[in-house]
Amino acid sequence: MTELELELRRAGVAEPIAEPLGLYGELVLAENRRFNLTGAKSPAELLGHLLDSLSVLPFVAAPYVDVGSGAGLPAIPVLIATGVPATLIESNRKKTHFLESAIQRLGLTAAVVSDRAEAAGRREDLRDRFASGTARAVASAPAAAELLLPFIAPGGVAILQQGRLDAPERQALEDAVLVLGGRLEAERIVEGERRLVLVRKEGPTPARFPRRTGIPQKRPLCST
Fold first, then answer.
1. Omega prior to 168 cis, within 30 of 0
2. Contact (Cβ atoms closer than 8 angstroms) between residue 38 and residue 175
3. Where are the alpha helices (DSSP H) in the chain?
4. Beta strand pairing status for 194-201 and 182-191?
5. Per-residue pLDDT, 102
6. pTM > 0.85
7. 141 backbone dihedrals φ, ψ, rounded to 5°
């Protein structure tokens, strides 16, 4: 039993999930010794990220998309826990290679798209296609909404994993999701300043979104 699996069990994660989740964590830590995959460098540091990833489970429906997947958080824990059909969007080639390798090693089924979210969100086979999606700490809340909502089908939910939201960012987010065809449905505090912001997609995202590469982050919608 890996150290991570033991700690996950102590945290209340069920054995059928804790074992593959612990293996995934070991793969992340091993890859981190080769290049900077994630900021977590030890089992103790990674544990919180794994538990944080599992917090989205009550809101995930199939098919599912994750934008800015990086090391696979929260997407791979979601896959391990649910087995839902999934698509992972990540532009960094080293990270996409790791994601593909980890998915194969863990016996999971998912597609990895090696592209920027701004480009992938305009693809006909990906736009307005997913019942749920996540974006974990990829950008400010309005920018994350612009990157994720184009993938979500009307009626689906976008799950933004964010830290602290000050009043201007919260107002910008509320205004931005309306522009993008959604509405702010709920906000759930996970721990400390970490939170899940749930955005319900009510209609198609206007064709002009997402804007071209880099613009959502540099000039977040509705921000002053």
1. no
2. no
3. 3-10, 15-32, 43-54, 75-82, 93-105, 117-120, 141-148, 167-179, 215-218
4. antiparallel
5. 98
6. yes
7. -60, -45
* Three-class DSSP category at 207: coil
Of 54, 58, 63, 50, the C-alpha closest to 23 is: 50
How far, in Å, CA of 212 to CA of 202, rounded? Answer: 23
Q: Which tokens in the block code for residue 196?
A: 């899940």
The amino acid present at 195, given as its one-letter code, is R
* Joined tokens for residue 101: 């390798």
107-to-4, 24, 80, 83, 104 alpha-carbon distances in Å: 19, 11, 9, 10, 5
Half-sphere exposure at residue 29, Cβ-oriented, CA atoms within 13 angstroms: 18
* pLDDT per residue of the chain (224 residues) written in tens, 0 to 9: 888 999 999 999 999 999 999 999 999 999 999 888 988 889 999 999 999 999 999 999 999 999 999 999 999 999 999 999 999 999 999 999 999 999 999 999 999 999 999 999 999 999 999 999 999 988 899 999 999 999 999 999 999 999 999 999 999 999 999 999 999 999 999 988 899 999 999 999 999 999 999 999 999 999 87
How many beta carbons lie within 10 A of that of residue 214, not counting itself? 10
Residue 91 structure tokens:
């532009």
CA gap 213, 141 in Å, rounded: 17
Contact call for residues 63 and 24 (beta carbons, < 8 A): no
